[in-house]
Amino acid sequence: MHDSIVHLSDDLVQVRLPLPFALKIVNCYLVRDDDKWCIFDTGLHTPQAENVWRAAFKQLDIRRGNISRIVLTHSHPDHYGMAGYLQRHFTDSRADKPPPVLVSEQEFRAAQTVFQHGVDLKPVMQQFLGQCGLPAQASESILGNLADIRMATQPHPTRVEFLQPGQTLHVGQFRFEIIHTPGHADGHLVFYDPAHRLILSGDHVLMFITPNISQWPLSEANPLGRYLHSLRQLQQLEVDLALPGHKKLITNWRGRIVELVAHHEERLSHMKNAINGGATAFDVCTRVFDTDALSSHEMRFALTETLAHLEYLVKKEALQKSDREVWRYSLP
Ligand SMILES: [Zn+2]
């Protein structure tokens, strides 16, 4: 339990919450906010994760009324999942107003659609996977079970305020510039304090793994193009320490961004080479990834990530796409 709570400074604490899937851990942060604390990202709601938060609050003597705000980088379930729980947990009975959850409007709407309103996405996803060229019998197994994930995002927050890119978020001694960084999630935000050369980077820049950049039926077009564009903007920032949503803290900010850009450029060229005389997204996916070794959950991300790369190449006019029932890509 002890190594789940990492004191980075008097004002910054990393809370490492368990996840019941391959990623294993999501990093959340407590940032001192004058006489209170501000939470950045919350974890997936499981009993194990509740225990880690409880231990962190005990260690820091954080009680009801001591949380000022709950800030989210984006609304993927491992970041959004405990926002409502933590908000409820810290409602001060005297003040009777829970701490607000601060998030981009786009991300909050996505969370409502997918987790809260229980929209049945299966028919949309099945049609979409078919257009990617996935055989119908495989589509059932890779769709996964959204019901479990929905359970792990309850309760939903009741008091929500929307963050605007370009605004400054004052948290204790920090002045965070709010920057919109689409790609991994359409409304993803990062929080940058130039005076402290510090950034809370969510899932936009990670060590060891490349953030998943996927095209989904409900996501905006060309996520990879928007991701690479926002990476190049972030590369200009002066950063000594980045606090990411997964894996290790980042101390070579620019170097890591250069690696991420190079990774995608290499993958783009592999995918283009895998087109041969013409191919579906599924064909390219099986040629570029070792798909036999992937779980069905990983297969879903491999396929949607392949699609993001192919769509990027179409936008760049390096590939042609025929818009029939199944999308086929070919060299121009
Ligand atoms: Zn994410």
Can you give me a brief rundown of this structure?
This protein is of the alpha/beta class and 332 residues long. 40% of the residues are buried.
Topology:
Layout: E1 5-9, E2 12-18, E3 25-33, E4 36-40, H1 47-59, E5 67-71, H2 77-80, H3 83-89, E6 101-103, H4 105-116, H5 122-131, H6 136-143, H7 146-151, E7 160-162, E8 168-171, E9 174-180, E10 189-193, E11 198-202, H8 223-234, E12 241-244, H9 253-273, H10 281-288, H11 296-315, E13 320-323, E14 327-330
Parallel strand pairs: 4-5, 5-6, 6-7, 11-12
Antiparallel strand pairs: 1-2, 2-3, 3-4, 8-9, 9-10, 10-11, 13-14
Helix pairs in contact: 5-6, 9-11, 10-11
Bound molecules: zinc ion.
What is the CATH C level class, in words? Alpha Beta
Q: Kindly state the mean pLDDT as a whole number?
A: 93
Specify the CATH architecture: 4-Layer Sandwich
Q: Structural class of the helices, strands and pairings?
A: alpha/beta
What is CATH's topology name?
Metallo-beta-lactamase, Chain A
Sheet with the most strands?
7 strands, mixed
Distance between the termini: 56 Å
What is the number of helical segments per DSSP (H or I, 4+ residues)? 11
Describe it for me?
It is a single chain. With 332 residues, the chain is an alpha/beta fold. The chain has a single domain (2-132, 159-270), classed as Ribonuclease Z/Hydroxyacylglutathione hydrolase-like (Metallo-beta-lactamase, Chain A). Helix content is 36%, strand content 21%. The protein has eleven helices and 14 strands. The chain has helices spanning 47-59, 77-80, 83-89, 105-116, 122-131, 136-143, 146-151, 223-234, 253-273, 281-288, 296-315, and strands at residues 5-9, 12-18, 25-33, 36-40, 67-71, 101-103, 160-162, 168-171, 174-180, 189-193, 198-202, 241-244, 320-323, 327-330. The strands form three sheets. Strands 1-2-3-4-5-6-7 form a seven-stranded mixed β-sheet. Strands 8-9-10-11-12 form a five-stranded mixed β-sheet, with no helix packed on it. Strands 13-14 form a two-stranded antiparallel sheet. β9 (174-180) and β10 (189-193) form a beta hairpin. α5 packs across α6 (136-143), α9 packs across α11 (296-315) and α10 packs across α11. The longest helix has 21 residues, at 253-273. It is globular and about 65 Å long. The chain starts with a strand and ends with a strand. Bound molecules: zinc ion (ZN). Zinc ion (ZN) is lined by residues 74, 76, 184-185, 203.
